[in-house]
Amino acid sequence: MELFSKFQRFKGMNTKPSHTRISKFLSLVLRHRPEKIGLKLDPQGWAEVNSLIEKLNAHGLMVTRKILEEVVATNPKKRFALNDDQTKIRANQGHSIQIDHGFKPIEPPEILYHGTAQRFLESILATGIQKRNRHHVHLSADLDTATNVGQRHGKVVILHVRALEMHKAGAEFYLSENGVWLTDEVKVEYIDY
Ligand code: HQG
């Protein structure tokens, strides 16, 4: 048995995928390409848990309900949510497919932060912070989170966004379930750094 599992690892046929691998694949199918495994999302982005597990398994990612619940509960960025009766799952934010998040507009704090790479600075200071491939521009209430987000792209620079002033001038802000502040765009005049 042990030999068999070693052999499987050797062949790259890992029967017990890591939480990170499952999380990355969940991000792909719940945010971007549900059709990759034939999954259907409802207009609010929810998938049936039973159907998701069945389709993940059919595509070679061996996931049980218990493991799925662990991945949702322990995900460091709370990327996924289960509904109240645990029958449905969705990504909290970060979709590229069109879904109705049901986010309610809410007043932001005075300052929000955006971590980005220095190489983007010139372009951002010319055209503002744009949502690019996402549905919203992502902002953080704290510097640590903004730093982590920015570091993904290279040498980090933290931009200070005068969010409350933007809001008073008519911009909508939303707060996702995992604490990410979202808005449509940030114009240059609201950025300090
Ligand atoms: C930059 C992760 C040039 C923008 C994180 C960013 C976050 C511009 C990059 C979430 C620009 C887009 C989002 C302009 C914006 N010119 N560059 N005019 N406007 N940019 O990854 O905010 O792992 O799409 O500064 O934790 O880095 O997905 O956005 O550097 O919450 O759960 O274009 O992604 O969460 O990069 O990160 P991204 P982001 P997940």
Description:
- By secondary structure, the chain is an alpha+beta fold.
- It has two domains: 3-91, Orthogonal Bundle (Arc Repressor Mutant, subunit A), CATH 1.10.10; 112-192, ADP-ribosylation fold.
- Helices cover 34% and strands 17% of the residues.
- The protein contains seven helices and nine strands.
- It has helices spanning 2-10, 19-32, 49-58, 65-74, 121-127, 143-151, 163-168; strands at residues 47-48, 80-82, 88-91, 111-117, 137-139, 156-162, 174-175, 181-183, 191-192.
- β2 and β3 form a beta hairpin.
- It is elongated and about 50 Å long.
- Mean pLDDT is 91; it is low at 1-14.
- The structure holds ligand HQG.
- The site of ligand HQG has 18 residues, from β4 and α5.
User: Helix-strand pattern, N to C?
Assistant: HHEHHEEEHEHEHEEE
* Oligomer designation: single chain
User: Roughly how many Å is the radius of gyration?
Assistant: 19 Å
Bound ligands, each once: ligand HQG
Low-pLDDT stretches are: 1-14
**Second-tier CATH architecture of the largest domain:** Orthogonal Bundle
- Number of separate structural domains: 2
CATH fold group of the largest domain? Arc Repressor Mutant, subunit A
N-to-C CA distance: 58 Å
Q: Please tell me what the overall shape is.
A: elongated
Strand content: 15-25%
Q: Give the strand order, joined by hyphens, for the main sheet.
A: 1-3-2
Helix content: 25-40%
CATH class annotation of the largest domain? Mainly Alpha
**Overall pLDDT confidence:** 91
Structural class: alpha+beta
Number of DSSP strand runs: 9
What is the CATH H-level superfamily of the largest domain?
Answer: RNA 2'-phosphotransferase, Tpt1/KptA family, N-terminal domain
Helix count equals 7
What's the main sheet like? Answer: 3 strands, antiparallel
